[in-house]
């Protein structure tokens, strides 16, 4: 009596087969078991297991090839999507590069403007320092002139006081001389009168 191997649906595990006189029958793959069972029912006797197991490998290869083809198609679709994404990213990258170039140019221009402003500031600071030095020099000269003026004024005031003192002394002497002159003039008039009287007596 021949034992039939039950049919296995795709995606289900094959049930364990009872071991016969040879252990090779229980170790047949699922597709081989299905084909083996079909041939056994049709012919009334079990076929040669080696003839069935080779078909199982071919079918598995076809299934794998079909699966690989489907996976390949999916990968092609994914590759196309990736290419589209890469193109979009390249466009974004070009835009980013242009934006970056504009930003770099703006930074360069701002750097030049900053350097120019720094140079102008240094020039202004230099002029301010020079002006401050000139102002300090002018103030020093004014202080020297003021000191010299004070010294000259003090000297002139001293000379003026001395001159006034001398004039006062001279005025006093002039008064004395004037008194002496008046006295001498009176004495001369008296003498002149005496001479006149003497001349009158002599005549």
From TrEMBL:
Residues 1-29 are annotated as: Disordered. Residues 9-20 have a biased composition (Low complexity). It comes from the Eukaryota. The keyword Coiled coil applies. Residues 72-194 form a coiled coil. It comes from Neobodo designis (Flagellated protozoan). Keywords: Coiled coil. This is Uncharacterized protein.
């Amino acid at each position: 009596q021949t034992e039939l191997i039950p049919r296995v649906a795709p995606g289900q595990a094959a049930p364990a087969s009872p071991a016969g006189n040879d252990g090779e029958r229980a170790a047949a793959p699922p597709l081989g078991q299905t084909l083996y069972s079909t041939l056994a029912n049709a012919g009334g006797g079990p076929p040669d297991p080696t003839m069935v197991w080779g078909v199982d490998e071919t079918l598995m290869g076809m299934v794998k090839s079909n699966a690989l083809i489907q996976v390949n198609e999916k990968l092609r679709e994914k590759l196309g999507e990736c290419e589209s994404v890469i193109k979009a990213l390249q466009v974004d990258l070009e835009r980013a590069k242009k934006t970056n170039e504009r930003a770099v140019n703006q930074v360069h221009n701002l750097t030049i403007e900053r350097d120019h402003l720094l140079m102008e500031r240094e020039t202004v600071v230099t002029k301010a320092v020079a002006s401050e030095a000139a102002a300090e020099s002018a103030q020093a000269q004014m202080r020297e002139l003021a000191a010299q003026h004070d010294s000259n004024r003090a000297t002139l005031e001293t000379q003026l006081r001395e001159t006034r003192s001398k004039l006062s002394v001279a005025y006093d002497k002039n008064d004395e001389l004037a008194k002496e002159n008046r006295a001498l003039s009176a004495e001369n008039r008296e003498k002149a009168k005496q001479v006149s009287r003497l001349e009158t007596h002599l005549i």
